[in-house]
Design brief:
The complex is a heterodimer. Chain A is α+β, with helices and mostly antiparallel strands. Helix content of chain A is about 40%, strand content about 25%. In chain A, the strands form 5 sheets. In chain A, strands 7, 8, 9, 10, 11 and 12 form a 6-stranded antiparallel beta sheet that branches. In chain A, strands 1-6-2-3 form a 4-stranded antiparallel beta sheet, covered by helices on one side. Chain B has 2 domains: about 110 residues, Rossmann fold; about 150 residues, Succinyl-CoA synthetase domains (Rossmann fold, 3-Layer(aba) Sandwich). In chain B, helix 3 runs parallel beside helix 4 and helix 7 runs parallel beside helix 8. Classes of the chains: A alpha+beta, B alpha/beta.
Amino acid sequence: MNLHEYQARALLKASGIPVPDGDVASTPDEVVAIATRIGGPVVVKAQVHSGGRGKAGGVKLAADAAEARTHADAILGMTIKGLTVEKVLVVPAAEIVTESYVGVIMDRATQRPVFMVSPAGGVDIEQVAAESPEKIFTQPVDPRFGLLNHQAMALGFRLYDDIKQVRQAASIMRKLYDAFVTAGASLTEINPLITTPAGEVIALDAKIGVDDNELGRKPEIAALRDPTAEDPAEGKARAANLSYVSLDGTVGCCVNGAGLAMATMDLVKYYGGEPANFLDIGGSSNPEKVVAALEIITSDANVRSILFNIFGGITRCDDVANGIVTATRRTAIAIPIVIRLTGTNEKEAVAILKDAGFEALTDMDEAVKEAVKLAAEAA
Amino acid sequence: MSIFIDRETKLVVQGITGRDGSFHTRLMIEYGTAVVAGVTPGKGGQRFEDAVPIFNTVADAVAATGANTSVIYVPAAFAADAIYEAADAGVALIVCISEGVPVQDMTRVMPFLREREARLIGPNCPGAISPGRAKVGIIPGQICRAGRIGVVSRSGTLTYEIIHQLSKADYGQSSCVGIGGDPIIGTNFIDCLSAFEADGDTDAIVMIGEIGGTDEQQAAAYAAEHVTKPVVGFIAGQTAPPGRRMGHAGAIISGSSGTAAEKMVALEEARIAVMKRPADVVPLLRERM
């Protein structure tokens, strides 16, 4: 789960990291109130889960409160990469002397959090990594000790010559690690970390990605989820405990297990079709989950055929069959359904489906070919 | 022989009285696994289904039964504690089935395990099976056959699909290991390739990877140097979009890194036969063996 900038900023502030004054607003009136309180030029920043906000016109400098209103009118409600802007952050326009990058990421290879810093801040760090990797410095962290003082200082010296700024940066990095742990983050970034004409080191922008597995034990972080920032079908899937990602194709897929779900999508493509989604109904096979899955798939207007691919192990094929029958009785589905199931209680499942007028296949390739063919015919 | 688990496996089940733990314990016993103990704090002294003794702690279970392997079915929030407990009790092989373990927990678990020389398989994995010998975890026994193919995979049901294809074509398995779909896992592809290479009962290896991370690329480089047995590989997620988590916590393309295409190239460069679809496993094995 990604946090908005204003949420990430609040977490950094709570950890003791200096951030500029400012506040979040959902209406132009609120923007004006904040800009008036701040006084002087402000920046109005769209709060959406997307990079490239500036290029899309979602970040604007305003000389005063009146101009801030003009920008708020334009930015609130605008669409950036398919996401509607519901909130803006209003901050004083900063005078920037230098821009650096500071981040902590969960590194799979070393199985540790790793600090990354670069004096080339203010731009996409992946771009820096690709173009000038020598400008990126890393420090793995032993999670049992956190970022040690000398490690933080050594990173600080990579960014600044002035010892006062080095110390400020080191302090910010140790606090950033605290925020990383507190938020249950997989990524915590300050980009840019700036220095001001007065010599102060300040976090100008903040980004936090949270490990979804942490949300169960961190209700205060889970409460930061913004339902307006996600695809409604994906929100519905999450509520039903299904794993769903919407795609652009026409073959709706309903599979048990993430790996098999990906392999099914790939096979749809292999046989000339395009998958409409990734959907994993999970290991247990409550018929209600199947009902929810079918509702979500059929709510996608692009879907022309629906493919079930179930390998019964823990999942019982008869439970899935009952779910399909229940769902199709509740609401008639006009889209053709192809069902492949094999494994635990396969015979019972085939009988249940046959009684309800469905045919069941046992071979994955045959089923995918059929679903692709039906989708093409209906297009 | 086989890898990691065999007839010498003496298993303690952590969370034996829970819903998943009790269900799978029955299946493991049915399969012939030596389930010597269970652990549920507060239920020490009782028996599971009048047969398996239950202990309050893993240390008690190990002392009383000589258990050398543990399998964990506790909720994700308690999984790290269960792993620490098993390692502290001297259990050499710990298999964690639990899904949803916070990654930050795993960063602390891994150095703890290294200090105690314990091997972890998982978390978020289906466990391992050495057909005809023992099963630890949830891989359905009925789809497996004893034989000479080693299978290692990051997935669950996709592994079953491929095992099913193998068994149908009379390619039995020496061992099948599900290493798990999380970003940080205890046993990786290289560990399994190395164990299968050394295993006298394994003639060829099937490795099933997916998008996210670089474990497959590293395994390919390792295989090119150290594995003489034929290897057939599959990568799931060729149609996955970047930046989206595909079910498994570890299955995410970050920027341009971790794509199926780059992994498939790495496998091919290491002379590993790459399947385009699960059904290719048998023809490719036939070609290579």
